[in-house]
Amino acid sequence: MPTLYTMPETCSLSPNIAVAWLGASVKIHNIAYGDQKKDDYLAINPKGQVPALRFDDGDVLTEASAILAWLGAAHGKEGYARDTRIGRKEAEALSYMTSGVHATYGGHFNTQKFAESAAAQEEVKRKTYENLADHYRRMDGTVSQNGGEWYLGRRSFADTFLYVLTRWIEKTPLSIEDYPALKAHRTRMEADEGAVLP
Ligand SMILES: N[C@@H](CCC(=O)N[C@@H](CS)C(=O)NCC(=O)O)C(=O)O
Predict the structure, then answer these.
(1) Which atom belonging to ligand 1 lies closest to the Cα atom of 50?
(2) Does residue 6 line the site of ligand 1, with CB under 6 A?
């Protein structure tokens, strides 16, 4: 059985939820913060990050969107990983959330990688929150335009990643109150029993 490596409060929550939704036979191994840089884990994922999915033959898949795509292809029910509008849009949404929104969080989580002086780091943070506000505004509009319930109008893996992003907003000076559709989405995700895909 493949093992999904996760860490609390991180983007690995997204594939973790997807595993639960699918009822997929994937073992969850939750590592403590800091262990991602230790030799045992670096042998699994040399990037020193979660998520990582290790298969029984030793092959390792990293990158949340790739892991979600594999989960959909290997364990998805009807409508997933097929050439449907929702399938295409799900891939688009996950690329946007991982390479667009998550990457923007670099200026918040790893400010020191973008600037050295205290003043420059302040500038990086200010711009980061401006850029994140644009992303949250766009995602709030998408949820509203798609009926106000799920990111793509019906539940998809995009909702698992959006949930991570709506939790992370609490770590920033931004407020979920400014994004009512996202606030409702977060509440909906928290009430989701996650039993089966729709
Ligand atoms: N591009 C990667 C990003 C993975 C990533 O940034 N993981 C973070 C958690 S959200 C991590 O492991 N951070 C710990 C570290 O970099 O030391 C993906 O989409 O999976």
Answers:
(1) 12
(2) no
Tell me if 45 CB under 6 Å of ligand 1.
Answer: no
Q: State pLDDT tens for residues 157-172.
A: 999 999 999 999 999 9
Backbone angles phi, psi at 52, to 5 degrees: -145, 145
Enter the tokens of residue 126: 């200010």
Q: Is 156 in the pocket of ligand 1 (CB under 6 A)?
A: no
Secondary structure class of 159 (helix, strand, coil): helix
**Domain spans of the chain, in order of start:** 3-75, 85-191
pLDDT of residue 85: 79
pTM of the model: 0.94
Cα 52 to ligand 1 centroid, rounded to whole Å: 10
Whether the CB of 98 sits within 6 Å of ligand 1: yes
| 85-191 is classed CATH 1.50.10.20 | no
Omega of the bond prior to 51 within 30 degrees of 0, cis?
yes
Strand partners, 4: 28, 53
- CATH 3.40.30.10 is held by the domain 3-75: yes
